[in-house]
Amino acid sequence: MFQGKRILLGVGGGIAVYRAVELMRLFIKQGAEVQVVMTKSAQEFVTPLTFEALSGNKVHSDLFDLTEQHGMGHIQLVRWADVVVVAPATANLITKVSRGIGEDLLTTLLLASEKPVLIAPAMNVSMWQAESNQANMKILRERGFYIVEPVLGALACGEQGAGRLAEPETIVQATLPLLAAQTLAGQTWVINAGPTIEAWDAVRVLSNRATGTLGALLADAAAVRGAAVTLIAGKDTPPTRADVQRIDVESAAQMLEASMDAAKGVDVFVGTAAVSDFKFADEVQGKLKRSGNMQVELIENIDIIQTVAGMQQRPTKVIAFAAESENHVVYAQDKLKRKGVDAIIANDVSNMGADKASGWWVTANHQETLPATSKQTFAANIIQAVCSLGLSKQ
Ligand SMILES: Cc1cc2nc3c(=O)[nH]c(=O)nc-3n(C[C@H](O)[C@H](O)[C@H](O)COP(=O)(O)O)c2cc1C
Question: Which residues are catalytic?
Answer without folding.
Answer: 157
